[in-house]
Every structure is written in C-alpha cells, then in structure tokens.
Amino acid sequence: MKFICGPMATISHPAFRILIEEFGGCDEYFTEMINAGTLIVDGPFEKYYLNPSPVPQKLVWQLTGFDIDKMEEASRILVELPGLGLDLNMGCSAPAIYKTGAGISWMIRPSADAQSMVHKVRKVVDSYNHNHPDEKKRLSVKLRLGEDNFTDDSFFSFTDMLVNEGVELLTLHPRTKKEKLSRPPRYFYCQKLAERYKNVSVYLNGNIKDKESFDFAVTSCPDIAGVMISRAAVQKPWIFKVLRQTQKIKSEEKAEETFDNNIDMLSLALDYIENIQLYQPPEFWKTRLQRFFLYYAQNFKFSHYAQTQFINAKDISELEQRLNEFFEKCPDERFIIV
Hints:
Blueprint: E1 2-5, H1 14-22, E2 28-30, E3 34-35, H2 36-40, H3 46-49, E4 59-64, H4 68-78, E5 85-90, H5 95-98, H6 105-108, H7 111-131, E6 138-143, H8 152-164, E7 169-172, H9 188-196, E8 201-205, H10 211-220, E9 226-229, H11 231-235, H12 239-250, E10 262-264, H13 265-279, H14 282-296, H15 303-311, H16 316-329, E11 335-337
Parallel strand pairs: 1-2, 1-9, 2-4, 3-4, 4-5, 5-6, 6-7, 7-8, 8-9
Antiparallel strand pairs: 10-11
C-alpha cells in the first residue's frame, strides 16, 4: 500500500514537502496544480512551482488547463523534469477552475475533447520514455465521479477511455462536482475501478484523517494500490508515519523505533515559516502561511482562538510573535503526543 500526499493549492510546495519528510515522508508527492497556459509563457512565478525539492524522485507534476494544445505543449516541459510522471487534473471542482473549462470540466465537456487531450499528452510521455528507457515517466489522471446526475455507464465509459488512451494510474475522489466534504465519499467506486482495470493502479482520495478512517477505506477497497491524503496531512504532517507504523504492526513486522512521538508544535511552526521564506517568493508568503495555519491551529483545544491569532498576523514577524505568545499562554498545547 502506497501513501501519497495530495495536490493542494498554496500548500503542495517544497516547504511543505520538507515538513512531511521530517516525519519520514510518504511514497509520492503530487504538486499543486500547474497552469498549462502560464507555464508555456514562462510566468514570473513558474520557477517556484517547478522546484522539486527536497525529494524530486518522489514528485508527480499535476497539470491543469482548458486548451488541448497548451496542455500538450506544457506536458513537454514537465516530462523533462525529475519525478515519477505527469498527472492530469480532471477532478478540481473549484468554480474558478471548472468555469474556465479545466478541472472537472474535462469530464463534462464532449468526451472527444478529453480523449484528444489525453492522447496528445500520452504521445509526449511515450516519446520521452522511448528516448529515456531507464527513466520512464507515468501518466495519471485525478478525477471525480462527474456531475450530480452521473450514471455508472457514463462514469465507466469515461474511465475506459482514459485507460484505452494509456493512462496508467487513476486517483478517484469519489464525490460529484457539487458534493461537499460533509458528504461521505463513495469508496466502492474506487474498488470497482481496481477490479475493472487489472493493469492500472488506483489510488483512493477523500476523508482519510486518522487510523480509523484509513482502516475503513482500505477495508472497503482491498484492491487499491494507494491512499492519497491531503488536508489531514497539513494538520498532522506525521500522519503518514503513524499509518505506516500501524501497517507494520498489523503485518507483524518490526515497527520503526525512531519516531519521536513528542512533537514540539512551536518549533514545527517556526521551521515551516523559515522554509516558506526560503522556497517561496515574498508575494506568496502571506497566502501560503494563512492556508497552512488554518489547518495547523486545528490541533489545539483553543483552535478558534489560535486560528484567529495566526491567520490575522500582518507579517511574518508578528506571526512569530503571536506563536510565542500563544504557547506562553497555553503551555500545555505546545507538545503533542502522537
């Protein structure tokens, strides 16, 4: 069973991967969405999106866009970078994405559009693999179930097309376009995909936040190849380590003994702030930190107070000051026992 860190806007960058790696890491990291149109014109911030640190060998480059030719051209750039391969985003349901024709819109547009785009990107990947037989790249797709009125026939017809066009991995978030996180994911569709395509890997994504939810997901879908975790990994960057340990205990392997389960949350936060400054442009610092501390604060009993304090800091200096003041007022919150 593989553990995968999912793609998250403003989160899936080197500073966050460094944090996860400090707790033993995971098997694969999907990058945040890289816009095809911006990439091919070499936008001013693209070098930050394309930084593969600290584990380039574990990276999956996620590409988004609405124009078939631009997706093809952008894939030529990404396939040359270190990493495991390319992932085509066909599942993002954020209005700012799907209203442009990207994300889940690929599942709603005429199927010929999606097929043409996948076919062209597959040819790019095949050409690279032909010329680099020892460094072959994988082509994958992240998707949802489709519109709220989707049918099994329409969903599987779409995934059949992807597999027939050479997609090697499907990551399914088993909700529709409009379904919110409060709606339980339909995991049985992940299992159906795994049973349907014996030569294609299937990753499950959605609602895994602890050992209990992980156990439920993998029991529901015994044939999946991996589990993707996103938001819970921001709140608890040690989650992959914990789940890996429990898997070893279940299989009666010797669990690793190097995991320090006494986590200093102040040091973790200050280190993260330092890495944001090292790996992100100043223009991104505020939004990246606000998004991270929105989840970080959920670890505490006084989470709403902590959240308000951290995300409303006007700059990094004030954020660091507020962190220190919070743990002075709430010393019992500083160390978390996992």
